[in-house]
Specification:
By secondary structure, the chain is mainly alpha-helical. It has helices spanning 26-40, 51-62, 87-99, 112-116, 122-127, 140-145, and strands at residues 44-48, 69-71, 107-111. The chain has a three-stranded parallel beta sheet with strand order 1-3-2, with helices on both faces. The longest helix has 15 residues, at 26-40.
Length: 146
């Protein structure tokens, strides 16, 4: 790496452009990602080595002042397991995927295993997602159409 690197002010990359950072850990990594996400102006995807590292990084970033970090969890099963993933994990993954279209900032942290699995197309998820809020009035005709 020929240029200097500042944890508080990491260099900005254009979309699709790769970038090398020095080995950072713990709060230094959280500070660098937080600064990069603020300067980037859009959602940033961060791949973590495992679920524990992803959760720890999410918590570190969310303790800082800046864009919010969300976790895209792994299903925590192996491809050939006879078990189904926990429904809470499936729901959280679908929640993050459904919110991607409207997301304008922030950080999404995913363990590498979560990124290696095939995902449903965005149109499929958007067409089959329903959000209900407490106290919200439901238009039954529109709901039935959907």
């Amino acid at each position: 790496m020929t240029q200097s690197f500042s944890v508080l002010n990491p260099p900005r990359a254009e979309p699709g452009e790769g970038q090398q950072w020095p080995l950072l850990e713990d709060l230094a990594l959280a500070l660098a990602i937080n600064g990069y996400a603020r300067r980037r102006g859009g959602p940033v995807l961060v791949a973590a080595s495992d679920g524990y590292s992803a959760r720890r990084l999410r918590d570190d970033i969310n303790h800082l002042d800046g864009p919010r970090a969300d976790l895209f969890p792994d299903l925590e099963i192996l491809p050939y397991d006879l078990y189904s993933p926990h429904p809470d994990l499936v729901s959280r993954r679908l929640e993050v995927l459904a919110g991607l279209q409207d997301r304008r900032e922030g950080v999404i942290i995913a363990p590498i295993n979560a990124l290696m699995r095939r995902l449903a197309p965005t149109g499929f998820i958007a067409g089959r997602s329903v959000d209900f809020k407490v106290g919200e009035e439901l238009d039954l005709a529109r709901f039935r159409e959907r």
